[in-house]
Amino acid sequence: MTNLTKLTLSDARDGLRGKDFSAVELAQAHIDAIGQAGQLNAFVTETPDIALEMAARSDERIARGEAGPLEGVPLGIKDLFCTKDTLTTASSHILDGFVPAYESTVTANLWRDGAVMLGKTNCDEFAMGSSNETSYYGPVINPWRRASDGAQLVPGGSSGGSASAVAARLCLAATATDTGGSIRQPGALTGLVGLKPTYGRCSRWGIVAFASSLDQAGPLTRSVRDAAIMLTSMAGHDAKDTTSVDLPVPDYEAALTGDIRGMRIGIPKEYRIDGMPAEIDALWQQGISWLQDAGAEVRDITLPHTQYALPAYYIVAPAEASSNLARYDGVRYGLRVPGDDITDMYENTRAAGFGAEVKRRILIGTYVLSAGYYDAYYIKAQKVRTLIKRDFEQAFEDVDLILTPTTPNAAFAPGEITDPVTMYLNDIFTVTVNMAGLPGISVPAGLSSDGLPLGLQLIGKAFDEETLFRGAGVLEEAAGFDAEPDVWWA
Fold this sequence. Notes:
The structure is a single chain. The protein is an alpha/beta fold. The chain has a domain at about 5-260: Alpha-Beta Complex (Amidase signature (AS) enzymes). The chain has helices spanning about 10-15, 25-35, 50-65, 105-110, 160-165, 185-190, 225-235, 280-295, 310-325, 340-355, 355-370, 375-395, 420-425, 430-435, 465-480, and strands spanning about 45, 75-80, 115-120, 175-180, 195, 215-220, 265-270, 295-300, 400-405, 440-445, 455-460. It has an 11-stranded mixed beta sheet, with helices on both faces.
């Protein structure tokens, strides 16, 4: 039998429908792979019994001719998504023992369509991080290693567990969330397709909140087609989320026509930053050539407020985080550290329950929202956000998609970046998309001089994921990226 963990999601779907193998066999193959990959620390909660039970039900539905779009497909679920009766911690000590009595809308949509849950994937604590080093359960390790020294590397963050699991063939795809690049950046660093949909395309209900006006769910997959299949199931209007948009969900897979003749691709001059590594710039130029060869027209554009995006993001996101995380007090759920009185209990619980990066962002957020600083920082950052959004609106009057690098570098080693500001710069090419609420996708496009994956990012118009997928499919075909990490962890 074919190595079932090597299949793409679309191939596995077709194989299940053709009864080449069973859903139980497919689930068991991935359960076995997870059992051999403990060194990666990609999962914080494994659910093999649940997976096999769900797979058995999938086999029954397939036998009856009632298969759903994702019937029998085994997935990893980022530990930010609430899953009924299954531990959900946001990889934080403060949510120790929290077992939701409800299901997030995105995961409910996936189970409706027949998907199978293998477990909950590790992530930066409350999604705050760009390297997956802030998790209470320890750092996630990238399955890729540098050719020069064989050093272990970070998978990017905050969705590092999902990225590592998909890249290491521990699941066919995984859910993730993107607040400032937390799907696209780890996708680029692990050789995957990472899709951040338009804000409002997927419901946020039942996803542990970081920054509510920026958070958006999306998939990490091994191909653009797989991302299209996943988004078709994940997306949809949800009355429980007031930011969820009531628009029909297209058949995204049908958008992969391979034809971008006449499409206009924008190249923003502001993304040519000082100190950009030569190999990142060269890959960007190669991407431009690939799209031109496919019949697209390339145009230089300007996004003049790009330089203010990162500082504005690190005001808006911590401000919203300080508000959202105020609910964790040790009273209703999760960790409780006793004290002399209720105030002392609050302080003890939060001091013990939150990690250093989460505390840093809460303090920043509380500061920028405080009296005397609200107008100077938070209001000004929101005005900058409006200008960034306007930049994109004006650019999209002349172009259909925008092409940029995904990250300013390849994967780095744990502990290699210790300065928070330097770490935040990993999101320099991705945060504008969240600030403007637009869809963006990272496609693996080449290898660094050290044999590590590098990605290119396409940015689309709001709720025009179909055009985004069409461009990404052509980019993927031209790049022909088929490299895989050597299996050193088993």
